[in-house]
Write a structure and sequence with these properties.
alpha+beta; binds zinc ion; Rubrerythrin, domain 2; 3 strands; three-stranded antiparallel beta sheet; 26% helix
Length: 74
């Protein structure tokens, strides 16, 4: 089950919410664990950014193919 980062708009507390994709699609309204407010917004996780960076690196690496020696591409 994926984790989502949410921030409370009332007290700025950041908390994680565990929800299925189905629950997410139906509109997730997590409650702030600190003040029980439902005025929350989702934060973008840094995981997606890290994946994009990795992709760019592998595309620009020269000399990496089926005949590359050991140690190539890490
Ligand atoms: Zn709060």
């Amino acid at each position: 089950m994926p984790l989502y980062d949410y921030q409370c708009q009332k007290c700025q507390t950041v908390f994680e919410v565990r929800a299925t994709f189905k629950e997410k699609q139906e509109g997730l309204k997590p409650e702030c664990p600190q003040c029980q407010s439902r005025k929350t917004r989702q934060l973008l996780t840094s995981g997606l950014l890290l994946l994009n960076t990795k992709d760019e690196n592998s595309q620009t690496s020269p000399g990496c193919g089926p005949n590359a020696g050991p140690g190539c591409c890490g």
